[in-house]
Amino acid sequence: MVIYFYPKDETPSCTKEACSFRDNIEQFEDQDVILLGISPDDSKTHESFIENHQLNFTLLADPTLDVCRKFDVIREVDGRPRIERTTFVVDARGIITWIERPVNVEGHVERVLQAVHEISGL
Hints:
Glutaredoxin, single chain, 25% strand, alpha/beta, 5 helices
């Protein structure tokens, strides 16, 4: 499983990252990898984001930041909580086997695919 946290739907970097995952979804599916995106946006905002960009994977809403806190992806910026763009690869036993933090969107999906490939031994 790949879980990626991102700050906000429809922002330039978040859209670029989501569309890159969309464009490469078959490579994840070929390795039986589930892809989840999580942000503080609500489900209605996610629905619009999915529709606007034809996203083909699940986005989870975390407006209370509970999941973000559990994964320790919140950073204070100017006294306000902000999501630090972070990606986790989780193996079949539920163990986090790879983390990219902070994420540089350029080449990110390729790095995630490489990590999945190395971890799965394919």
